[in-house]
Amino acid sequence: xxxxxxxxxxxxxxxxxxxxxxxxxxxxxxxxxxxxxxxxxxxxxxxxxxxxxxxxxxxxxxxxxxxxxxxxxxxxxxxxxxxxxxxxxxxxxxxxxxxxxxxxxxxxxxxxxxxxxxxxxxxxxxxxxxxxxxxxxxxxxxxxxxxxxxxxxxxxxxxxxxxxxxxxxxxxxxxxxxxxxxxxxxxxxxxxxxxxxxxxxxxxxxxxxxxxxxxxxxxxxxxxxxxxxxxxxxxxxxxxxxxxxxxxxxxxxxxxxxxxxxxxxxxxxxxxxxxxxxxxxxxxxxxxxxxxxxxxxxxxxxxxxxxxxxxxxxxxxxxxxxxxxxxxxxxxxxxxxxxxxxxxxxxxxxxxxxxxxxxxxxxxxxxxxxx
Length: 371
Ligand code: GLY
Ligand code: MN
Ligand code: MN
Description:
Layout: H1 13-28, E1 34-36, H2 39-46, E2 54-58, E3 61-66, H3 71-77, E4 82-85, H4 90-101, E5 105-108, H5 115-124, E6 129-132, H6 136-142, H7 146-167, H8 176-189, E7 194-195, E8 200-203, E9 223-229, E10 231-233, E11 236-237, E12 240-246, H9 251-270, H10 277-290, E13 302-304, E14 311-315, E15 328-331, E16 334-337, E17 341-344, E18 347-352, E19 355-358
Parallel strand pairs: 3-4, 5-6
Antiparallel strand pairs: 1-2, 2-3, 7-10, 8-9, 9-12, 10-11, 13-14, 15-18, 16-17, 18-19
Bound molecules: glycine and manganese (II) ion (2 copies).
């Protein structure tokens, strides 16, 4: 069932700009229409927060394909879009809309979809032909606008303030889960809409897992604790990692800390528009390898950050993509010593014409890491 309605309410400037960039990319790829299904992509393209919905962009129209749960949200957020409210499956309604508009071809982005969704849409839009589009949304989202950076900075501020409040409450005997819960509570009470990803709080040997899961391990009178955390603010993510200590700082961990910090600072220093992601990764990896810990740095240096906590570009040896002004990346080298502990230091860094601007500001001074 299709119900269509258009209004003349105006489109906000930021969204107008994004839509015109999408349309420029469509025209470059010779796409007469472009279907967006990934939730963060539909939000980016239009400002519509609803999920389980699709946006279809044409040169002169924007269609939203959604359902009754989002009637009011559409009225409030995108009254200017032509709406098609489904009663059945999303793919079926996408098919109805393609038919109604007489589309012969539509660009789709398989990388933002589940395989089942891709197959269902492909079938439902027949005889309209799906064209695998270039990564239009990922490419656009790589470059942050000043409006986006305002929200991202807020997300970082909340994460950091929440961590400072949490560190003041850390005591021997608490569990990793309790400390992670405290940190998440402190972010929510400061205005976070949620967490950017499952908070990592890992003590001693558990910190040797880059993606450790907090458990019931208790902080000892003398131990290290690694926190990897981020807030979500209006969908925008922050992502930081710091380590701290109760009692004393073991000399081996202190040595590793200095190497990781040197690698991180050197990589940040090397960030400039035009530098390739793999070359920045190589700066940090070179320092860590020279110190004899190359095998213990078992992940990429960082990743793009925005509406998703992991998005393009990938700041790793796998990507020869050049950095561009306006990209926001994490820089997070680490060294992991199984059974002993691990050190990772992670900041959120903006690529500017003059080089890197580190937007996160929590202390990395090892002396201040002793609680
Ligand atoms: N929190 C996951 C990461 O740092 O990539
Ligand atoms: Mn992280
Ligand atoms: Mn990260």
